[in-house]
């Protein structure tokens, strides 16, 4: 009497197993959906001959706020060139500014970012700084120093020219700096003329008195 129920039980068991497998397949991607690094600047393993001013990491999904960190450690294994405490986030990218690198060699970028699923991941990449990058930086600094020095010398020359022009103008017009002397001389001349006129008038008056 119990034999007819076996096919039903077998069908139920098969359906249950199939449903469990389907659920496991659907849930598996969600459980392992950590962000994946798909690009970076500098690129992982690359040798760069231009001094980078930042490190940018690009992932396949958005990077969430909270607990993100990026360090850039130099060949000495101790110096961290990353600047600032906060990582800049822009959708799927995370970036940090770096100070000028001081020596050629291998640099390690260690990062900790919060994945789109809320779980943090910690990984690292590396790049090599070529000696040419340091040479270019030194040349640029020297050129900037020369430009600054040239500007200071030009300013000093212009100031000297202005002083010389002022002195030349004063020398060309001797009375420009001695106006009061000119005024005193004019007053003196007028005084002499007045005295002479007064004497002449008195002399004329005296002559007329004697004649009468």
Describe this entry's structure for a reader.
The chain has 212 residues and is an alpha+beta fold. Among the domains are: 37-129, Immunoglobulin-like (Sandwich), CATH 2.60.40; 133-169. The protein is built from 3 helices and 8 strands; from the N terminus they run H-E-E-E-E-E-E-E-E-H-H. The strands form 2 sheets. A 4-stranded antiparallel β-sheet has the order 1-3-6-5, with no helix packed on it. A 4-stranded mixed β-sheet has the order 2-8-7-4. Mean pLDDT is 78; it is low at 21-31.
Principal-axis shape: rod-shaped
Strand order of the largest sheet: 1-3-6-5
Overall average residue pLDDT: 78
Calculate Rg over CA atoms. Answer: 47 Å
Q: Return the CATH class of the domain at 37-129.
A: Mainly Beta
What is the CA–CA distance across the termini?
189 Å
* Largest sheet: number of strands, sense, barrel closure: 4 strands, antiparallel
Query: What is the string of SSEs from the N terminus onward?
Result: HEEEEEEEEHH
What's the architecture of the domain at 37-129 in CATH terms? Answer: Sandwich
Number of strands: 8
Uncertain runs: 21-31
| CATH topology assignment of the domain at 37-129 | Immunoglobulin-like
Number of helices: 3
Structural class: alpha+beta
Q: Report strand %.
A: 15-25%
Fraction of residues in H or I helices: 40-55%
How is the topology of this model organized?
Blueprint: H1 6-31, E1 37-41, E2 47-48, E3 54-59, E4 64-73, E5 88-90, E6 93-97, E7 105-114, E8 120-129, H2 131-172, H3 179-211
Parallel strand pairs: 2-8
Antiparallel strand pairs: 1-3, 3-6, 4-7, 5-6, 7-8
């Amino acid at each position: 009497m119990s034999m007819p129920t076996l096919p039903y039980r077998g069908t139920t068991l098969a359906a249950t197993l199939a449903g469990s497998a389907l659920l496991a397949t659907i849930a598996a991607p969600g459980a392992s959906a950590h962000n994946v690094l798909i690009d970076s600047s500098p690129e992982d393993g690359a040798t760069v001959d231009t001094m980078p001013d930042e490190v940018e990491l690009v992932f396949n999904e958005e990077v969430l706020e909270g607990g993100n960190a990026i360090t850039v450690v130099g060949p000495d294994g101790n110096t961290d060139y990353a600047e600032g405490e906060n990582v800049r986030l822009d959708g799927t990218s995370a970036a940090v500014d770096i100070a000028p690198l001081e020596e050629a060699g291998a640099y390690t970028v260690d990062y900790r970012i919060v994945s789109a699923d809320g779980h943090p991941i910690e990984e690292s990449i590396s790049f090599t700084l070529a000696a040419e990058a340091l040479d270019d930086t030194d040349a640029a600094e020297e050129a900037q120093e020369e430009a600054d020095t040239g500007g200071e010398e030009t300013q000093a020359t212009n100031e000297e020219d202005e002083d010389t022009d002022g002195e030349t103008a004063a020398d060309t017009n001797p009375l420009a700096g001695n106006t009061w002397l000119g005024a005193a001389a004019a007053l003196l001349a007028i005084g002499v003329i007045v005295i002479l006129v007064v004497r002449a008038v008195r002399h004329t008056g005296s002559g007329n008195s004697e004649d009468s």
